Amino acid sequence: MGKQPSVRIATPRQxxxxxxxxxxxxxxxxxxxxxxxxxxxxxxxxxxxSGWKGRExxxxxxxxxxKESSQIAVYGLGGAADFGSKELRSWSARAIKAATEEGYxxxxxxxxxxxxxxxxxxxxxxxxxxxxxxxxxxxxxxTPKSKLRTIRxxxxxxxxxxxxxxxxxxDTVASAVTFGRDLANTxxxxxxxxxxxxxARQLASSRSMKIKVLGPKELARxxxxxxLAVGGGSASPPRLVRLEWGKGPQTISFVGKGVTFDTxxxxxxxxxxxxxxxxxxxxxxxxxxIAQAAADLDLxxxxxxxLPLAENMPDGLxxxxxxxxxxxxxxxxxVLNTDAEGRMILADxxxxxxxxxxxxxxxxxxxTGASVVALGHHAASLYTPDDFLAAELLxxxxxxxxxxxxxxxxxxxxxEMKGTHADLRNVAGRWGGANTAAAFLxxxxxxxERWAHLDIAATAYVAGDQKGSKGATGYGVALTSAWLLELxxxx
Length: 491
Ligand code: BES
Ligand code: MN
Ligand code: ZN
Prior knowledge:
Elements: E1 6-9, E2 19-24, H1 37-50, E3 59-63, E4 71-76, H2 85-101, E5 106-110, H3 121-131, E6 150-154, H4 160-185, H5 193-206, E7 210-214, H6 216-222, H7 225-231, E8 239-245, E9 251-256, E10 258-262, H8 282-296, E11 302-312, E12 324-326, E13 332-334, H9 342-355, E14 360-365, H10 369-375, E15 380-383, H11 387-400, E16 404-406, H12 411-416, E17 424-425, H13 433-441, E18 451-455, E19 461-462, E20 471-472, H14 477-487
Parallel strand pairs: 1-6, 2-4, 2-5, 5-6, 9-11, 9-14, 10-11, 13-17, 14-18, 15-16
Antiparallel strand pairs: 3-4, 7-8, 8-11, 12-13, 15-18, 19-20
Ligand BES is lined by residues 262, 280, 337, 339-342, 366-370, 372, 427, 433, 457.
């Protein structure tokens, strides 16, 4: 099944469309230099008639008088000086919304001539256009179908070739984001640890990756006490997946939290909003999306991915507050709250990843509500001791519009995580909960220096009480792809 709508780069010969939307700055005439005279004239007439000034969101509408008639709309972009990738995206989103709601089959987007539309900045725009029709409707008996089949983009003059190359990359990234979202949106009665491992197996076999899937017996044999403890209360036993692919002098490893449902366990969560804990596997889903993108983009690195998968349930076999658990690197953890389960499974997975000595280690997890309290839903929290890695990731976050904000890893937080009867405890006091969680994880990266923890609890999904379309966002796939492309010196 092809994705709807499909995105293309317009060629000057194909400039007819049912709907043409032209972006235009305040105080300027519509940038119609690349358009045929029929469209140029129609734009000029529309602007004149409506007393249009180009204020942000102001719209002038008109119609061509040529034989292939088009509706045209000139959209105000506000002042050119205030225009950036945010404004660009909000413009394109409004354009697509209008085209969809009004039932057009094709849309031509005429981009303004502006630095924010050139070079790397264009990648996220194209990814967004590709994702504009995303829906998770596998369980919906009746779904209203959008008529919009094609979105053509007319780049500013001189950018055609780079847009055409960028679109190939964007299509690859968008399909990886879609994969990640589909996994994360899948309900927990289907998406249990075994199901997630099977999805990883399918990805591995389609992309010639090496894969290993460990079940409870092997986990017990090698001493993965954290994953076993968290998965103990579930009728769906835990798994640990390891993937390996690619070639290159550097090894980049990814770890993703895969709690397929988080009830809190014996320290059970309140009922309200608990359904959202199906997204507690988002870290693992993002890592699978990244794996797909990294393989399809054919990047010159060796990659490894580790997915600890478990369901956190209350049961006679559950782990309990007071338990002391031994993790894969030998450290013991006193469980004070079974709802702090993410760090328990990550402790094992990070220890294994670190043992294999990666050059860079990135870990993604919906780890703490405290990170949502800190930043709201506007950014994920970045923890890393490496200033260079921080700068690289913050840059990629900017480019991909998946915001990150760096948080502290001070020794005081580590101090708070010391146990009474074990090396560590799994929770400290109430304050700075995202930071103490990160400090806990930092004790499982071994000798790895270039590591980062991304707490994506705030950005992995759009919750019921938020604006926008609900569901998994695939946060981290576009960000990490942008980072990898930069690292590989592409664009
Ligand atoms: N999966 C949750 C974190 C979470 C909360 C993700 C809200 C998305 C939205 C995690 O396992 C958890 O329960 N964390 C606890 C930690 C606490 C017990 C120290 C939390 O944040 O309350
Ligand atoms: Mn929890
Ligand atoms: Zn959790």
